[in-house]
Amino acid sequence: MNELDEILLLKYLQNNCSEEELAIVNSWMNLSKNNRNRLLEMERIWHSGDKIRFAKESHILRAEKLLYSRIKDIEEKKQNISKSKWLYSTIKYAAAIIILFIGTYFAINYFRFNVTDYEIVTTSKTDPVRQIILPDGTKVWLNHSSILKYPKKFTEKKRVVELEGEAYFEVTKDTKRPFSVQNETLDVQVLGTVFNMNCDKNRQLAEVSLIRGSVKVTGKHDEGMIVLSSGQKAELNKSTKQMHVRTFNTQLDAVWHDGMIPFEDATISEIVSTLQHLYKTEIILSPDIDKSTYSGVLYQKENLDSVLLNLTLAMPIEYTKNEGKIYIKPIKR
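Below the sequence we write its predicted structure tokens.
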């Protein structure tokens, strides 16, 4: 598959792909470095249109004129097609995008973009969690159905990456070069810290959960700015444009990246509350449950039964299931 269908490309840019279609795009992108660069360039064209709702007719005409002029130049040089094939194919895609998204004059700057110095990593719903090491040593775990864009080499003054979806970051400390994660909703700035960020376009809330360190979270549409401390979570409601902070066991938001559920001096009640949050299942505790505390790590399983079985081996409890609910009571040993 050397070319990507224009309709599928448009659905991808509009974030309307099914999981099967996203897998096709992902496979095409991984075929070659050129494909990755072309897709990144297409996204730059598309998202540049978010900066303005309406364009003057003169700007649109200039954009069209420049676009078709470049296409004509390449067609006249088909005898040298081996050298111009990549650019011709890229411009062909650009034509489809600009015609469908003709409400912006930013396409004028399209041919000035240079994306050869960027990498783009995507995951579909069926892909495993991917770990990426950035040029500065920062570690990133990319969750399912997510996209990460980053430069092959950071500048001397700043480190900026772009995220769509969810990722877990362990940022290498560098006081001279702040680290920033950007998307259409939030801008998160750090020096060196560990945090989870979820900015999935299909969710009502954009979230930043700080596990260690300090971060500054800024709304991209004048929702305000908040500085988080360890154990705090910022939530921005996209509809109300309100941003709030709450204290939370932020490590729970990052369980997906390594499958570990950590506990320290936690009661059975607190552990059960965590499992309810992760597995979305109602668990009812007997009033006479043991009040002792426990420390350690549980491993996240595909089903809650496997986790509860491990608990019964380590704690004096047993459980039963009835009508979708789980009941836990103490046992005498």
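The CA atoms of residues 3 and 89 lie 8 Å apart.
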